[in-house]
Specification:
Elements: E1 2-3, E2 9-13, H1 20-26, H2 31-37, E3 51-53, E4 68-70, E5 76-80, H3 87-94, H4 98-104, E6 126-128
Antiparallel strand pairs: 1-2, 2-3, 4-5, 5-6
Helix pairs in contact: 3-4
Length: about 130
């Protein structure tokens, strides 16, 4: 398993006996979401040695459905806020802590609000992700 610079899991390498359901349960994800995170369509259980993406970067989901820009290495580094997005979902999609997203982007008043609050989020706003490696 690899951890981000924020000590959050971003990739997991499967071992014999792993299933999509067992991996999702271990990382507190929904199986359907975990499958949707992967670069390739899922048609079978993962083989041992499969590298599984746990971040959900390419998974369009409620509260984090916007697009993103990539840095020179191809990693997401700027997220474009869509109507209905919220900090908690955006942070989860990119594998970063909500507090880090709020701090990096100087979102006013967000420390006193829940991760689902959208008070500082405006459609079209660009958020720095400082994507973990």
């Amino acid at each position: 398993m690899s951890l981000s610079s924020y000590k959050l899991p971003v990739k997991y390498t499967t071992v014999a006996g792993d299933t999509w359901a067992s991996i999702a349960k271990a990382f507190e994800l929904k199986e359907e979401g975990l499958k949707a995170f992967q670069a390739k369509a899922i048609d079978a259980e993962p083989a041992p040695g499969t590298v599984v993406d746990l971040r959900g970067v390419d998974y369009q989901r409620p509260g984090a459905s916007g697009g993103y820009e990539k840095d020179a290495s191809g990693q997401p580094d700027v997220y474009i806020v869509q109507a209905g997005d919220n900090p908690g979902a955006v942070a989860a999609r990119f594998g970063i802590p909500v507090r880090q997203l709020v701090t990096d982007n100087k979102l006013p008043g967000m420390f006193s609000l829940s991760p689902e609050d959208t008070a500082s989020f405006k459609p079209g706003m660009k958020l720095k992700l400082q994507n973990p490696t």
